Amino acid sequence: NPLDGDLLCLEMQDHYLKVHTSAGSEMLLCRMEDAARELEGLGQRVHRSWWVANSARQGIASDGARLVIRLSNGAQVPVGRTYRPSLKAAGWI
């Protein structure tokens, strides 16, 4: 079961939330706002379509003006401009 693994990140896809874990991914019918509220303190919203778990964050990289967060599984998650101030305050960037 993909939800048995360690939580890495959440990704919005239409009205679904794709939950990425170390064991795989699974789609759930859930709003990002609700999931991010439930997981408060365990990670950060980094983009309107992405949330990243504290434990999954490996580093930050830039691709020109774009910032991405590198995850423990090698994935890269985009950082939205709107979220940069709160990520700076949290020491993520």
Describe the secondary structure blueprint for this structure.
Blueprint lengths: L6 E7 L2 E6 L2 E6 L2 H7 L4 E5 L2 E4 L3 E7 L2 E6 L4 E3 L5 H6 L4
Antiparallel strand pairs: 1-2, 1-5, 2-3, 4-5, 6-7, 7-8
Structure write-up:
This protein has 93 residues and is mainly beta. It has helices spanning 32-38, 84-89, and strands at 7-13, 16-21, 24-29, 43-47, 50-53, 57-63, 66-71, 76-78. Strand 7 (66-71) and strand 8 form a beta hairpin. 24% of the residues are buried. The model has no long low-confidence stretch (mean pLDDT 94).
Rounded mean pLDDT is 94
Main sheet overview = 5 strands, antiparallel
What is the strand arrangement across the widest sheet?
Answer: 3-2-1-5-4
The helix tally amounts to 2
**Shape verdict:** globular
Terminal CA distance: 33 Å
Rg from alpha-carbon coordinates: 12 Å
Beta content: over 45%
Helix-strand category: mainly beta
Q: Total number of β-strand segments?
A: 8
What string gives the helices and strands in order?
EEEHEEEEEH
The percent range for helix content is 10-25%
